Amino acid sequence: MSPEPVAPPEVIAEAGVNHNGEERLARELVEAARAAGASAVKFQTFDPDELAAASAPTAGYQAAAGQGDAQAEMLRRLVLDRAALTRVWRHAEALGLPILSTPFDIDSARFLVGELGMGRIKVGSGELTNLPLIIALARLGKPLMLSTGMAELAEVRRALDAVAFGVLAGPAARPSLEALAEAGRAPEAAAIRARTVVFQCTTQYPAPVEEANLRVIGTYAGLGVIPGYSDHTPGLAAAVAATALGARVIEKHLTLSHDLPGPDHRASLEPAPFGALVAAVGEAARALGRAEKAPTPSEAPNRAVARRTLVARRAIAVGEPFGPETVAIRRAGAGLEPAALWALEGRAARRAYAADALIDAAELEG
Question: Exposed e or buried b for every residue in 69-98, given b needs 16+ CB within 10 A?
Answer without folding.
Answer: ebbeebbeebbbeeebbeebbebbeeeebb
